[in-house]
Amino acid sequence: MPDLLVVQLVRFGIEQESISKIHSPIELTPLLDLGPFVSKDEKELKDKAKYKLHSMLLHHGETTDSGHYTAYVRNAEQWYSCDDETIVPRKYPATSK
Hints:
By secondary structure, the chain is mainly β. It has strands at residues 12-15, 18-21, 26-27, 31-33, 50-52, 55-60, 68-75, 78-83, 86-90, 95-96. Strand 8 and strand 9 form a beta hairpin.
């Protein structure tokens, strides 16, 4: 299992030949356990298949051509909301749109 796992969720879809943003919320947990998906032959990897969430990048806008990006990042156990030069301590962001 890799030490670092990067996951990208594509939040745009094609509908009637136009690209539109998917607005359904995503529930995030601070720990991603992939152990149940590891092959039974790779039992020693099950404990290594746990990943702690460190950051999230969010797109604000309706199209792929425009919008604004913000981020949530974790330092130790404290989360921060980052928006350009503004960085503010926040609680864990449990859902994202």
